[in-house]
Amino acid sequence: MVEHERTGPVDWLSWAFSRVCMWGPAAIVGIIFYEVFVRYVLGKPTLWVNEMSLWLGGAIYLTSGLYAMQQRSHIRIFVLYDLMPAIVQKFFNFLAIICLLVFAFAIVWGGFGEAAAKFARWETFGTAFDPPIPATNKPLVLITMLFVTLQAISNLVRDWPAAAFIRKGFDILSTVIIVGLAIYAVPRIMDPENSVPQAWKFSILAVLAVSSLVVIYGLWRDFNRTPTPFIESHDPSDEFDLPDEVLAGRPPPEGRLPEGRANAGGI
Prior knowledge:
Elements: H1 9-21, H2 24-40, H3 49-70, H4 79-83, H5 86-120, H6 133-159, H7 164-189, H8 198-222, H9 236-239, H10 244-247
């Protein structure tokens, strides 16, 4: 797999999240193997493996959408899209962003109060291990929705391609939004009236600081860089170097090469 290039602050943040979360499935497999060993070999089952796998799996499921959006690999129905001329395809892309903005606004507006309350009281799962899954994953839903929306807009202004001032303006605005939200969250995280453990408070602050630095670095690094427009193609002939006969459903007999390719590669 060849990754799509990353340009701009939002791309860099999505890429950073993906590089952390890519180790999540390996961690889940590792703790499940551990559980199998201690349960059936040592006869001492754990209380934490099942809930930990649910916790990690939920976080990975949410944040993987960021990487899929940055790589333009999310599921799309393109039967009608491919039949339209380029100008109509751009309109479809813009319409998709409008729908995503409405959906993201509804999710954040409707879920912010509940997510903030679960985080402030540090709501746990109610099991023997009792991890804070509601307190962490509920806010993560809203955070991921915000970042997916920013990533979709970032893709749009790069894939059109938009004028340089539009791209730079969006990069500045997205950096201000992300860093501003991080600053806004600091006093609420450190509020002594909430029930968040101190270790978690400092861990979350570290994540906010690193995320802000990644976004600022992405803005500085790619501010004057013109990204390569992403050209989406669903024609198999553009993706694979196959003979025309194969693509047309008429493969040559086994052991024979099509005419004109007999000498390819020195044969």
